[in-house]
Automatic annotation (TrEMBL):
Signal in keyword set: no
Annotated catalysed reactions: D-glyceraldehyde 3-phosphate = dihydroxyacetone phosphate
Pathway involvement of the protein, from the record: Carbohydrate degradation; glycolysis; D-glyceraldehyde 3-phosphate from glycerone phosphate: step 1/1; Carbohydrate biosynthesis; gluconeogenesis
GO MF annotations, alphabetized: triose-phosphate isomerase activity
HAMAP family the record matches: TIM_B
List of residues binding substrate: N9, W10, K11, G169, S209, G230, G231
Alphabetical list of SUPFAM superfamilies matching this protein: Triosephosphate isomerase (TIM)
Annotated EC: 5.3.1.1
InterPro entries assigned to the protein according to its UniProt record, in alphabetical order: Aldolase_TIM (IPR013785), TIM_sf (IPR035990), TrioseP_Isoase_bac/euk (IPR022896), Triosephosphate_isomerase (IPR000652), Triosephosphate_isomerase_AS (IPR020861)
Isomerase in keyword set: yes
Name this polypeptide is given: Triosephosphate isomerase
Gene3D superfamilies: Aldolase class I
Active site: H91, E163
């Protein structure tokens, strides 16, 4: 059985005080039957970890090197030291604005797993790729290259997020059918790489304008195990509603 997950991606939002207020507001109001996660800016991770009890904490990115001359970057050693559990890798904003390639994301996944950080690996097509019928080719390439040479010891610790880029921050949620078809396809690609037993244990999240009003329907689909949520995860009451609906 795959444990559902609801992960908030705060992106470049929230001061330390705002984050602490959020944690204090959600603690005690989250369902235990799912993994409720917030992926926060690196500079406030420690403050959140310190106060989080049932809430789990993740970073939004990580450098693939352990240390060195990489000005401005955060290493897996540092994330481990901060005691975060998860790290988002390959978010479409990082692919688009910081030129992250599938090869770089592959190196990051390997390093995250080496340091026992649980990666949330994002894949997804842009609008033009969907409109020209390339969605499944793009998804396959992203998944195959991201997981090239990766060994998965515990499938529960590796999460894939299907995030159609045209749905992120646009208010345009993919229909339940489109989201399920893509997640099912991704699970098939993962089965080709790791075998069906492992693929059946890997959690696949949907991301793209998910909100309390659509989380239930999306998660009723067999291959959608949860959500990676941007905008609707920023307010404590909305996050609580997302998590309780997802549970
Ligand atoms: C995201 O940033 O991963 C995301 C899905 O954003 P939003 O929910 O705002 O579309």
């Amino acid at each position: 059985m795959r444990k559902p997950m609801l992960a908030g991606n705060w992106k470049m939002n929230k001061t330390r005080d705002e984050a602490i207020q959020f944690v204090l507001a959600v603690e005690g109001n989250l369902p235990a039957s799912i993994d409720c996660v917030v992926c926060a800016p690196a500079i406030i991770l420690r403050d959140i970890v310190k106060r989080a009890e049932t809430l789990k904490v993740g970073a939004q990115n990580m450098n693939e090197n352990e240390s060195g001359a990489y000005t401005g970057e955060i290493s897996p050693v540092m994330l481990k030291d901060t005691q975060v559990e998860y790290v988002i890798l390959g978010h479409s904003e990082r692919r688009a604005y910081y030129n992250e390639t599938n090869e770089k994301i592959n190196a990051k996944i390997k390093k995250a797993l080496e340091f026992e950080l649980k990666p949330i690996v994002c894949v997804g097509e842009v609008l033009e790729e969907r409109e020209t019928g390339k969605t499944y080719d793009v998804l396959k390439e992203q998944v195959v290259k991201a997981f090239d040479g990766v060994t998965i010891k515990n499938p529960a610790d590796v999460i894939i997020a299907y995030e159609p880029v045209w749905a992120i921050g646009t208010g345009k949620t993919a229909t339940t059918e489109v989201a399920e078809d893509a997640c099912k396809f991704i699970r098939g690609v993962l089965a080709d790489i790791f075998g069906k037993a492992v693929a059946d244990e890997l959690r696949i999240l949907y991301g793209g304008s998910m909100k309390p009003s659509n989380v239930g329907e999306l998660m009723s689909e067999p291959d959608i195990d949860g959500g990676l949520v941007g905008g609707a995860s920023l307010k404590a009451d909305s996050f609580i509603e997302l998590c309780t609906t997802a549970a």
